[in-house]
Every structure is written in structure tokens, then in C-alpha cells.
Amino acid sequence: MLHSEKLSVRNKVVSPDSQVCAVYPPDILSSHERRISPQGLSPPSRRARGELRLTASLSFRAKQECEFTSILAEPRNLLPGLNPSLPGVAGACVNLRGRTTGMNSAGPDTTPSKRETPKVSVIIPAYNTAPFIAETLDSVFRQTFRNFEVIVINDGAPDTAELEVALQPYMSQIRYIRQENRGLSGARNAGIRVARGELLAFVDSDDVWMPDYLSAQVEFLDGHLNVCASISDVVLFGSGEEIVWKMLKAGTGPIFSFEEVLKRKGGQLPSAMVARRSRVLEVGLFDEKTRIGEDVEFCARLCFPQEHIGYLGRVLVKYRQRPGSLTEDPRRRKWVESEIQSLRRLRETLDLNEAQRGLLEQEIAAAVAALALSDAYHSIAAHEFEKAVECLRSANAYYRDFRISIAAFCLRVFPRWTGYLLNKRFKRRPVRRI
Predict the structure, then answer these.
(1) Closest by alpha carbon to 185, among 296, 291, 283, 281?
(2) Which of 51, 183, 203, 308 is paired with 267 by a 20 to 30 Å CA distance?
(3) What's the per-residue H, E or C state across the chain?
(4) Which class for 279: exposed (0-12), middle (13-18), buried (19 or more C-beta within 10 A)?
(5) Rounded Cα gap, residues 132 and 140, in angstroms
(6) pLDDT greater at residue 56 or residue 295
(7) Which CATH number applies to 120-322?
(8) What stretch(es) of the chain map to CATH 3.90.550.10?
(9) Which of 59-68, 147-156, 287-296, 361-370 has the lowest mean pLDDT?
């Protein structure tokens, strides 16, 4: 029926037996018209020409019904980038003029075809997240910004069978890669290597985006060409109370530099970050030797030496907390350890000047001291007083605080009494979740 709308009425011929329109190209019917009969093609009779005129007066309603029937028989007319299993999407179709029917669209569909270049490549590494990845993909396909592609990397997941069952409804909408386990950095790098978008948006396969996440990120990056990446705030969920996590410390501007990344003034959560692909390729992708805290090291390389990262200042991501995750630990020990490891790794990967190297060593010392002080309080609570004294002395090598010296001395001389007082003070302190 697509072709029939472009032809004149004289190119439509009806078989008296079947009452179905047959459409001929104009060059075939230019010399004389023919009609379909059980015996084959023959010049049309006067009766056939009358039937031809009758066919031309088919009602508009009948024509619509004919078009709608042909559309329902062709699943490829479903809007690209939409999951048929989503509420309100199943059964959605497009008529011959591209208008949507049977659904409430979030906006004009601009999801690129395989031949078109997308603006954004969404990269999703998957490992032991089969129960959550459908929720992640649904949040991606509900984005108000539509010009993106989705790449899912199965990083040698032990739950591959369950993962591929969960991915089955989305297979026509994603690019799926299977590889041996190479860690989170290796999975992201596999996605980066096949990505076609100008921008790279990373999201872990158990996290969730707000519907306007991509539109806000793209708008910010298009308006700030001096930044190589941008981040948003997140809300922690999945383990009780939801907690807002601000990616930038108070007093830091909306655009921060390499030195501010070293000082850890800004967060570096990949699920809340979009980066320019050209810059990511320039700095050499994620470091696959770093298995924990790879985001800190990666963002520092993105900014080095004169680049910047932008900050949206909006909560646009839901970051899932699960048992064993870095953010689930109230003491943040694993988190701080990963930061220390990443900062030390920068010694080897970056050609730092004297001032930058001095700043890096200072930040490593500060992180080690903070970890030692946290371990001291933990040892006091466990009545391991000798270990607590060692931790306090180690921390005070950086802080040089007389109060820490007095606490260490009293704890060594009067361990139980001092331990009781310090532990009571520690319990009154609010637990720092992030």
C-alpha cells in the first residue's frame, strides 16, 4: 500500500473475483491497461474499466483499515528503541506517514538505525546482575532523549543463562557482546571499542537513570565545549532509606580541574557520568590493571593536564546498594582503599610535574591517615587497644594533632577507662554513609 499511494488511480486494477487491488508501475500500464483474471493478463473490457472507476472511489475509512491491517502484519514498524514489554508500548505501531498510534510517546522517536550514527553510546557491563538488568534497560529506553545506541557486555558472567533470558525482550534493540571475564574496566573498554556515538554514557547493570538523564547530560556538554565529561548527583537505594549523594563538595564550582580531582572534591561514579568519546580514546580507555577504584584513576587521566569535568548539580541517577558493594560499608573502608590504590596508580600512568606530584603524595597521605583513624575507632570498639594505639600513631603522622597524641597515651596507660570514653564518643558521632 505504500507504493499505491504514490501512483495515480488509473494504475489500480481490481480483480472481479478477489476484489483486491493490484498495483502496476506506470511504465507497464503506459501503453494499455491490463487486468488480472484467472486465465492471465488480457486487455481490460468495458466492465473492467467500470470496476476500475469504482475502485477509485473506495472510502477513506476502507483505505485506512487496509493500511492498518498491513501494518499489524509487519512488526518492524514498531518504534525503534522501544521495548514491546514496557507498559503502554506493546502493540504500538506507526502508520504510513510516521504518526504513532496506540501509545503515548515520550517524545519524537529519533533512535538511530544501524546505518545512522547515534549521538550517545550507552555502555552497560553485566556481571551477576541478571535480576536487575531489565530495570536498568527499561530506564534507558524511557529516556526523553532518543538518539542513542545501547551496548551490553556480558563479562563472563556466571549467571549468563539467566542474563540472556532477561535480555531476550531487548535483543532487537541492543548490541550484545560476550567475552571472558576481564573485570569492569575490561567490559567497559569492549563497549567503547565498538561504540559509534560522539558521547559515551556508562551505566552499571543494576543502576537506574531518571527519564531526563541523557537529555540533561547532552544539553550540558553541548553548551560547555570546554569540558570533556559531566557528572550528576545520585540517590542511593536498595537497602532501606534513600540517601542523596552529592558528587561535588560544597564550595567547588560547577567545572573542576585535574587538581580538584586529585583532592577528591568531586565524585567519579561512572553511572552518573557522560564523556566525550574522542577524549576517552585519547587517554587510553579504562586501566584494566585497576580492578577497584578504576573510576578515580580514569577521571584523573581525563582531566590531565588541562581538561575539565562539569557538574550538573541534579539528582538524575539511582545507584543501587547491595550486600558487598563499596557504598554499603558504613565505614567506607573498601571505598577509601580503592581511592588510595587509584591515586598510587597515577604515579605510574601520568607524567606529573613537581607541584602535581607533591599534591598527589599529600592526598595519598591524607587518605591513608583517614583510613588509619577509622581503623583505630573500630579497634577500640572491639577492645583491641594495642592495635588502636598503633593506628592512632599512624594517623597522627599526618594530622599532627595533640588530641590524638593524648588519646594514644591514655589508651596505652589506662586502656579500659580510655577505651570506654572514646567508644562512647565514637557512638555519638553520626555514621557517614558516603
Answers:
(1) 291
(2) 183
(3) CHHHHHCCHHHEEECCCCCCEEECCHHHHCCCCCEEECCEEECCCHHHHHHHHHHHCCCHHHHHHHHHHHHHCCHHHCCCCCCCCCCCCCCCEECCCCCEECCCCCCCCCCCCCCCCCCEEEEEEECCCCCCHHHHHHHHHCCCCCCEEEEEEEECCCCHHHHHHHHHHHCCCCEEEEECCCHHHHHHHHHHHHCCCCEEEECCCCCEECCCHHHHHHHHHHHCCCCCEEEEEEEEECCCCCEEECCECCCCCCEECHHHHHCCCECCCHHHEEEEHHHHHHHCCCCCCCCCCHHHHHHHHHHCCCCCEEEEEEEEEEEECCCCCHHHCCCCHHHHHHHHHHHHHHHHHCCCCHHHHHHHHHHHHHHHHHHHHHHHHHHHHCCCHHHHHHHHHHHHHHHCCHHHHHHHHHHHHCHHHHHHHHHHHHHHCCCCCC
(4) middle
(5) 13
(6) 295
(7) 3.90.550.10
(8) 120-322
(9) 59-68
Residue 267 cell numbers, joined: 565524585
Give me 120's grid cell: 550517545
The answer to whether 212 and 228 have CB atoms below 8 angstroms apart is no
Q: Count other C-beta atoms under 10 Å from residue 275's C-beta.
A: 25
Q: What are phi and psi of 332, to 5 degrees?
A: 60, 25
Cell numbers given for 200: 559515551
pLDDT digits (tens, 9 = 90+) for 233-267: 999 888 777 788 887 776 667 888 898 888 877 66
